[in-house]
Predict the structure.
Amino acid sequence: MIKFINQGGTAEYFRPYFMNFYFEVKKMKKFYITTAIDYTSGKPHIGNNYEKVYADVVARFKRLEGYDVLFQTGTDEHGQKVKENAQIAGKDPVDFVNEISNEVRKASDLLNVSYDKFVRTIDPLHIKKVQEIFEYLYNKGDIYKGTYEGFYCTPCESYFLEKDLINESCPDCSRKVINKKEEAYFFKLSKYEKQLLEHINNNPEFIKPESKKREMINNFIKEGLQDLCVSRSTLDWGIKLPFDPKHVVYVWIDALSNYITFLGYDVNGNHSEEFKKYWPANYHIIGKDIVRFHTIYWPILLMALDLPLPKTIYGHPWLTIEGGKISKSSGNVIYADQLLKHFHVDMVRYFLIKEVPYQSDGTMSYDLLIDVINTDLINTLGNLVSRTNSMLIKYFDGIIQAPKQTDKDKELINYAENLFTNVKKELDNCHLSNSLNLIMELFRKSNKYIDENEPWNLAKDSNNNERLGTVLYNLLESIRIGSVLLKAYIPDTAEVILNKLNTKETDFNSIKTFGSIVPGTTITDKDPLFIRIDKEEKLKELS
């Protein structure tokens, strides 16, 4: 709270300005983004980490736009597969999930993921709230007791009807299922089927991509939703039902509710200020394999709780290794900590965002990773920065000249001035790879601009100094604009470039018009941004 001190009317004079600032802060738009929480059955691989980097780029971009962002990620720590893997490892389940959860968090930290909350489903707060949610829905009549007989996939923690199976195997992971029968509680998905379909049809941004929306409608909702098994009586590693302790809460109500429990949701309506502020979520970023759970089970659970639904659920494609799904059984697993021993974190972040498109799987190999780094980060970006700074130092002792632009400069300037708007549009539509490519296109255009204007030839005649100074100014300003945007994607590298430019104009407002870099500023750093990777030597090192 601002305290005003009255000194001859000064406080009254400034009060409107202070109060305007106060209310602007109060009106700051919120943005709540989550990833799926990682299942703690084993150490996460680079494909799992992709989702965290994706969400991090969006979170950073929104912060730079001026949003009040909450970015939540974490781990899902109950279930049969966790208990089995703990037994195989000879560990107590608590010790086992502590170890794996730490690995998940470590990978995100290594990849410079700027999460605000890292949550765990063994947290006592979460456990209490899940029990309250379950009991509330039971008392409301949306959960009832019965007997389940069906086909169960242990790795996916999912039950299926026989018609759902593919070659007598799980439709999600293709592993063999087992026939099980047990007493269980069921959640009335069927009660909310029509309401869910109406919401999907009336909110085109709710499920992305469009292909996943069609799949959910045609393959599941229109087929008729079956009531969902939401408890287990043959498992003890989970959240016990307060009114029937021989049952534990099955994974979906436990795991999915993390998005609200850790915000301070309360079944009696006594929600925390944080919940009131951030819910509903703007984005749930999840893998394409769990779209059904997040776009059918989760929204129906929210409907049953009389809560608004998230704005957008994006089921991203997978990162594959040389075209194959990443799995230990295939022997193609790559972990973040191993990868980052050989490559700078921004090289890995750049590759992950660039190579996974909007709705088709991306592929990774060491060969391709090195090619992308050398082509984009070293040849296109790194060489542009070092060449431009070197020429400024050589021709003007590093002092940025005031520009006098001509028609020859319009193409580059127009592209740079429109870049923020175009990048934002792609990012807001979940086309992250496209948004990054738009930024890189500015650097490619800048390199072309160098070739077209030949500053080395302009420097041969002092009569061309004004033109030479203008060319270098336009290059430096284009680098600055692109680098400010790169703060969301490869933040460490972006900061290095902006420091090389010796500029304080580093926020998004400064890149909406061309010309914020200040003439008269001195640049002294012409060192290379990156050292080119010797592909043959690096591949030997990696092998």
